[in-house]
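In the design runs reported in the main text, the only information available to the sequence generator was the tokenized backbone. The following block is the verbatim input for one such run; it is reproduced so that readers can re-run the procedure and compare outputs position by position.
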């Protein structure tokens, strides 16, 4: 896992969620639904990004107020040189203890200042692609995250990390599991399945080389 991209460090955490900070470098800010990994003393915690907050401060407000007199080059220089804080929250959906990888709420959340990495393709496939669909139940039952949009986005990430030819079958199987989980809530189910239909169409097009 030495090739993993370092995103930031944990600011705070609680049972089932953790928030980490990174700087406002657009290449370093994770995307909604992206799987991330927080390194822990007794094992890693895997999460799905569900909220990204770009903070401001008095200096940023001054730049905005004077933006009419600043050139685009000067604004970009200020953005790149300054450490503008970004807070990213992730829903914990899996953890690793030694050789054991399990989907579920980790026994304890990651401690403050632990490093957070972007999951590579192998990790995503191992933890979420081949690990079952328990992470979908966790998202659906969590009040803080926008579960419908989060599941569509994260399933798209996982599908892209599946071996060639397995993207579409994975999404179909995910849709079947969601149908079972949300049989009592057809409106919620329809919202997610519509998103999955778009992902499946994209996977089909990609497999045909379109």
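Verbatim output:
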């Amino acid at each position: 896992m030495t090739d993993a991209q370092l995103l930031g460090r944990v600011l705070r955490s609680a049972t089932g969620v953790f928030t980490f900070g990174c700087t406002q470098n657009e290449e370093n800010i994770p995307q909604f639904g992206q799987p991330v990994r927080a390194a822990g003393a007794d094992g890693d915690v895997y999460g799905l990004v569900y909220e990204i907050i770009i903070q401001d401060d008095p200096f940023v407000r001054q730049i905005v107020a004077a933006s009419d007199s600043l050139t685009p080059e000067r604004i970009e220089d200020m953005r790149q040189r300054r450490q503008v804080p970004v807070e990213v929250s992730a829903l914990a959906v899996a953890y690793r203890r030694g050789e054991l990888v399990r989907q579920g709420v980790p026994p304890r959340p990651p401690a403050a200042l632990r490093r957070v990495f972007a999951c590579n393709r192998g990790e995503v496939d191992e933890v979420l692609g081949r690990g079952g669909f328990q992470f979908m139940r966790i998202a659906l039952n969590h009040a803080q995250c926008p579960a419908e949009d989060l599941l569509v986005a994260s399933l798209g990430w996982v599908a892209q990390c599946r071996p060639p030819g397995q993207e579409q079958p994975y999404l179909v199987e995910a849709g079947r599991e969601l149908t079972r989980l949300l049989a009592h809530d057809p409106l919620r189910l329809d919202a997610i399945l519509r998103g999955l239909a778009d992902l499946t169409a994209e996977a089909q097009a990609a497999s045909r080389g379109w």
